[in-house]
TrEMBL record:
SMART domains: HTH_XRE (SM00530). One of its GO terms (molecular function) is DNA binding. Residues 29-83 form the HTH cro/C1-type domain. CDD domains: HTH_XRE. The lineage of its organism: Bacteria, Pseudomonadati, Pseudomonadota, Alphaproteobacteria, Rhodospirillales. It comes from the Bacteria. This is Helix-turn-helix transcriptional regulator. Residues 1-23 are annotated as: Disordered. It comes from Magnetospirillum aberrantis SpK. InterPro entries: Cro/C1-type_HTH, Lambda_DNA-bd_dom_sf, TransReg_Diox_bact_type. Signal peptide: none annotated. Keywords: DNA-binding.
């Protein structure tokens, strides 16, 4: 935080700049978009904004208004509260965050596969999960 940043007692930047909370919400938007199988252009078009603006939301460079977040949630089949789960939690577990990133990467990889390849990956995952549980 630089010397010109002024935050009130709740941590909100009074100069209107995006905060850590905005970055966390943006990351949740990105995660839901990827899990929905949409790229930035597709989601932006459905919401009625440019992909550049969506990129700024996802990176936490711009704040998302409540109305815009509602639109995004509708397109992604989510509720607004989904974007606030775990937001502001102190000391977020790095292992959980890393696991979450692995899942997102796996979803992206599976979406790029043929149906047969995706089914093979699912079978392998089930075998590994079952073996671990035993």
């Amino acid at each position: 935080m630089n010397a010109t940043t002024t935050r009130d007692r709740t941590g909100v930047d009074r100069n209107g700049r995006a905060t850590d909370t905005d970055k966390q919400i943006g990351a949740k938007i990105r995660e839901r978009r990827i899990l929905s199988g949409l790229n930035q252009n597709q989601l932006a078009e459905r919401v009625g904004i440019t992909y550049q603006q969506l990129h700024k939301y996802e990176r936490g460079h711009n704040r998302v208004s409540a109305g815009r977040l509602h639109q995004i949630a509708q397109v992604l089949g989510a509720s607004i509260s989904d974007f606030f789960e775990g937001v502001g939690a102190a000391g977020k577990d790095a292992t959980v965050a890393q696991h979450h990133r692995l899942i997102l990467n796996l979803v992206q990889d599976v979406q790029a596969m043929s149906q047969d390849q995706a089914e093979a990956v699912a079978r392998v995952a089930r075998i590994i999960a079952t073996a671990k549980a035993a």
